[in-house]
Description:
The protein is an alpha+beta fold. It has a single domain (3-188), classed as Rossmann fold (3-Layer(aba) Sandwich). Helices cover 29% and strands 26% of the residues. Strands 2, 3, 4, 5, 6, 7, 9, 10 and 11 form a nine-stranded mixed sheet that branches. It has a two-stranded antiparallel sheet with strand order 1-8. Strand 3 (16-20) and strand 4 form a beta hairpin. Helix 1 (32-39) packs across helix 6 (176-188). The chain is globular and about 55 Å long.
Amino acid sequence: xxxxxxxxxxxxxxxxxxxINEKGCLIFGFxxxxxxxxxxxxxxIAYDMACLTRDDEGTLYGHFETEIRAKGIEDPIKxxxxxxxxxxxxxxxxxxxxxxxxxxxxxxxxxxxxxxxxFIEVSQFNITFTAxxxxxxxxxxxxxxxxxxxxxxxxxxxxSKDSNVRAFVVxxxxxxxxxxxxxxxxxxxxx
Length: 191
């Protein structure tokens, strides 16, 4: 079998992309896929392999892409959508910590907008995660992926900084359905 390699292997991050109320979202964190699927009414663009690109004006885009695809399969960049929001799903422990350091919030029953720098800080796992380097079947010519966490973070920042994307954390809920309802409610108010 013949393969085509991605031209953007270092632009692929461990996240999901979906459209909620026609707005593109990059989602990282705990319980991301199922909650995004419900909140977007199954308008999923990418599961676990979110490839980011930007245009000359600084607009951020995302699409599904893997490091390798079968020969003849078109470049998936043609399917990219504009990213308007970053969502970071918090786990239960992170939610408790957030409430402890922000007692004025009383309870966390809504999405909380955070500065871009804080989004980067709480999303480091998703930004720096890469598949193992020792895959059993590695085609000749497969490009090497940057595995240095600091360089992956720097590259994510280069792609996304100054792109006018708003960042939010999504507090923990007992069920993904409750989390999805919280997201839908926020988007219905036109963040």
